[in-house]
Structures are given as structure tokens and as C-alpha cells.
Amino acid sequence: MRSTAVKMVKIPSEDKRWRLVNAAMRRHGNKPDALIETLHTVQEAFGCLDDLSLRYVAANLQVPLSCVYGVATFYNFFTLKPQGEHNCVVCLGTACYIKGAPQILESIQNRVHIKPGETTPDKKISLLIARCLGTCGLAPAAVFDGEVVGKLTADAATDKVEGWMKS
Amino acid sequence: MIAEELPKIAAQEREEQRKFKHHIFVCSGTACLSAHSDQIQAALEKDVEERGLDHVCAITGGGCRGLCASGPMVSVEPAGVLYQGVKPEDSSEILEKLDAEPVKRLQASTETPFYKRQKKVVLEYAGTLDPERIEAYIAAGGYGALLKVLTEMTPQQVVEQITRSGLRGRGGAGYPTGLKWSTVAKAQGAHKYVICNGDEGDPGAFMDRSVMEDYPYKILEGMTIAAYAVGADQGYVYVRAEYPLAVKRLKAAIRQAQKNNLLGSNIGGTTFIFQIDVRLGAGAFVCGEETALIASIEGKRGVPRPRPPYPAEHGLWGYPTLINNVESYANITPIIRNGADWYSAIGTEKSKGTKVFSLTGSIQNTGLIEVPMGMSLREIIFDIGGGIPNGKRFKAVQTGGPSGGCIPEQYLDIAVDYDSLLHLGTYMGSGGMIVMDETSCMVDVARYFMEFCMSESCGKCVPCRVGTAQMYDLLNKITQGEATLDDLAMLEELADMVKHTSLCGLGQGAPTPVQSTLRYFRDEYLSHIVDKVCSAGVCKIHQYAEVVR
Known about the structure:
The structure holds two protein chains of two kinds. By secondary structure, chain A is α+β, with helices and mostly antiparallel strands. Chain A has seven helices and four strands.
């Protein structure tokens, strides 16, 4: 498993974000076990894992592309599609579920007309669901653009989303 | 750092702290942060400076006080005053009343059963420790246990202490920790690894998140002691990517520990070498299973493999590996510091020590609690938890996440420990406790967990991959009022099959919510099937609506 000297494949473009990706791989000695950590870095830098980045990471870590694709699709945290300008993650953990999260999700869905995991055609809003955010004390909760909002109501959630639609 | 330096750092830090007459801690846990506790801290810092109080009053982002629903929490030490629901504009009032009577409007009583009935071992120093400074941890007695172990004890003695303490794995199954440690210690291998399982995937559970956020040093110290005991040279903390604050604090803690020679080479001036790295999870529930977690650290898909061989003999990259849960490691330092006898005096005959629970759902005091093993569910829910809000009636409490079951009212007086919960058809799990009132439909709850297991199934073994999907379909039919009694019989048969033939804990545990709700709430299933009625009013049974019309 533990490969020694690795010949690096040239970066796909002059985009400076590739340097972050290279740094992540180097930090783990360009070894195959750096795969998940590297994919985290790619997603953080580029927003999603596209075809080009998967190929690049596969070549540099000397992992078959099929395995890279397997890992990228196995874990829920990774996304192969670009995300919208804003994103809304509704928590569907047990505490949120019994405190009305399904109704909140439904009202948002009715407003933006997309299902969880999808992005609106104008690329403005992505709707996602989370298994549990760990903020059960504030159930029901959702994350709007990285900000956790607890004790959420369906009205407050749709207001927030409508604000994005108008912006 | 060598052993003699530790007291010096502690004394220096205490001296530093004594300069301040007041110490204000603003909770910086995820729950309080999302209620904007960072703005409160900023407001307090600004006000302190403007009033020229910066030499008498220190402001620190502290740990969780437990009562998450009443956040943001602010505490003033050493007066021991606790404020709840604080807003940034309250800062000047809090500062004005530092030397006077506390602000009544915001004050939270610490005399309530919520605080009085708890026993803090894992969550010691509750909320009054800066989670981002190693000096604060050392001043509070931190790393004393590690240096004691390194200078006064042999690895065998450490294992013996942990065995004698009676500590059992806090991840849920309750395997004796000492036994696990001694197996890894005896195993042969050129390398050995120590892993901390921080992939807290159970929905409705956030104990480990809180422990990692508030006590990162305590986990590192516990892991380092474990590494010494089993002879490991490398450790990994596997944390969910969904817990960014925990990741940030653990990484910072590792850096500070390295700087102080408490991690790395020559730890504490001895020849002991141990390194810890953080590995991020990527949102797969199955990675809480130890062999799947190991695969994930190796950079692969998190798919479990058959055991034996157990990770204790054949783990990460084929080497002997010790895997414990976050809370298990957090118990190690108190055990070493106070002795195995002190620890084993807490709890019940077969379950020693305390357990941290996250109390959520339909309950007054949602938050994080730590109680001795053996406390009754009634005390936990009605005394500490404050009972059910809005005059609703208690229906059931769910423990153990998607692999656990529901406990009805008639068993509220049982003493909570590993064995009593197993006896009731559920299990301890990592410590999520979700209280449900009469507005929750138990069939819908079973369906909810089955959906969870179905979509989280890794797909490797057939019983879990196909069985959970079939069971979900049947449960869906029941909640839609379209099922027959034959479907119910099929559901029970499948539950038994999936439980006994699945490869790992995910599949083996998946039928538990169904089996336990069938055991205690069979009438609800029957009313969905026969009468086409959901008494809780949760399920939308179309057929019934048509008949009425």
C-alpha cells in the first residue's frame, strides 16, 4: 500500500486552488490513504468534485479512477454537482423529525420546487438534508449558508429562502 | 516538557487567573454559537475594555453548560452565577452587577434538579475551562494523569487499573475497555494504532460533539495513556466533517500538545513516542462500525468486513489497533487520577461510572446531562429533564439511535445501565435519549429509523441492503393504511432474518426499532392496519379520509 517516490501529474490549469489540493496530498505523503482528505480539500476549494479533479487526484495518488469515483459517491458529504449560490440544509435527525422538520422541509420544497439534493435551474438555491447536525437541543434546526438556525418554524424557513430568491 | 515543569505551568496559569477578580465564561458550543454567543462575547469584551475593567475581569469562550435549549449561557466565576438566554445588549448590565446582586431577569438557578442531580466525570469543570488553551487545562490538573502513568506505572499496571475500574465501551455495545486494551497490548505487530471513534452518527445524539469541542485535551491525554498502555506509536481521531468546531479545536489542541512535548517524541521527557492526527469522516453512518471506520481512515469506501479477526489483532493496515469511543477516552484521565476504586464505586454492579446523555425531543430541559449509571429513567426525564412541556403526556423514550428501541411508560422506573436496557429490547447506544409524547406515532418512528438504515446501508451484504428496503416498503404501506395482517407477519419475519444474518451492527440493529415498537405498541400497528387510524394524527391515511367523507 505504502508507495514511495511518486511522479506528480501536472496541474490541470493555472487556477491557484490546485495548489491547495497539491498541499493536501503532500501533507499525507501522496499516498493512497490521503484520498478522502484530498477530496475534502478539493470540495472546499472548488465547491464540488468534478470529472477533472477526480482524474487529477486519482493520477497523483495512484489510485484507480474507479476507486476514486467509488469513494466520492459512497460518502454523503461529497457532491459531484456544482452547488447553488445559496444553500439550505434541513436537519432530519430524530429530535428535529419529531419536532416538525418534515413540515419545514415540505414548505421549503413547495416554495423552491426542487427536491433535496437538487439545485434550482437558475443556480441560486441548493436544498440539502442532513442526518443530524448535532444541535438537537435547538430542534428543529437548519443551516442557511453555513449559519445554524435553531428552533426553526416553517414560516421563518420559507421567509429566508424567499429572501434569497429575490436577491 | 518534563514532569517537573507541569506544576510550574499550572502555578503560572493559576497566578495569571488570580489577577482577575471575575471570570466570565460565554458558552461557545455549537448550540450556543448558533444562538450568537460569539456576539455576546464580543460585546462583553468591548464593554470591559471601555469600562477599564480589563485588569479585573476576564472574558473566555467556555464549554457547554448542558442546558442547550436555554442558551446562550453565560457564567460568572467564582461567584457561580449562571445566566441564560443572554443577548449582546445585556452585557453592560451583567458587568454593572458584577460586585452586586446578579441580574435577576437573566439568572438561571443552579439549584434545580437539572444541575443538582448530575454527576460530572466526563464533563468535569463543566463550562469553566477555556477549550482552546492547554495552559488552562494543565492548571485544572490536566496531563497530571499522563505524567503519572509515564513516570510511575508500567503499561501492564495501566491496563490493570482500567480493567479494575470496570469501564465499558461508551460507543454503545459496552465491551469491557480493559479487556480490549489487554488484547491489543498482547497482540504482536511492528506498529500499533490507537483510534478515537468520533463519528457520532446516531441522529439525536450530540454527546461526543460536545466532549470533543469542550475537552479536546482530555481526549488527547486519554488516547496517549491508551497508546502507552498498548504500545502504540500513532493515533487517529476520526471526526465527522459535520462537526467543524470539534475538528478545529482538536487540531489546535494537537498542535499545542506537540509544542509542549505532550505529543510527539520524548513525551514528558521520557522515551515514549506517540503522534495523533485528525481524520475527517465524510457523512457515512456505517463508518461508526469499527472495521468500516478503519477502511475509511485507509482512504477507502467505508465498508465493514467480517470479524474475526478483530481490529485488536488485525486492524489499520493490518496492524493491531485499539478503537474506543470519545467518551471512553474521556473517562481515562479521571480513572488514573482518582483510582480504579473511586470509579467503580459509581454506578451499578455491572455498569460502572457515569454516562453522558443528550436529552432531546419533547422535553422541557433539552441538553446534555451526565448521570451515574443506574439512575431511573423517571428521574432522568422528569426530575433532570423537567418533564414533558405543554401539558402533553409521556409516551416513550427512544435510546440507542437507529439500532435502539423505544421504552414505554411502564418501565420508567428501571435503573438505566447496559444490561437493563438490553433486557427491555433496546440498548444503551452512544447516549441519545429522545423523549416522545402522545403526538408521536410509533409506527412512523419505526418507519423513520428504517428509512435511515435503508439509505445508510453500505450495500455489501444482502440481508441489510435488500431487507431494510423491503421492511421500509412494508412500514410505508402500514403508515398509509394500505397494509394487511399478512404484511405485518412478513415484517416480523424479515425483522428476525435481517437481525440474524446481517454482516455488521448497522444491519443487525436495523430491525430493533420495529421489534421494540411491535413489542410495546402493537395496538398502534393494528389500528393502522385494521381500523386505518393513526391515533397520534401523524400518518396521512387516505383511505380513512375517503371512508369518512
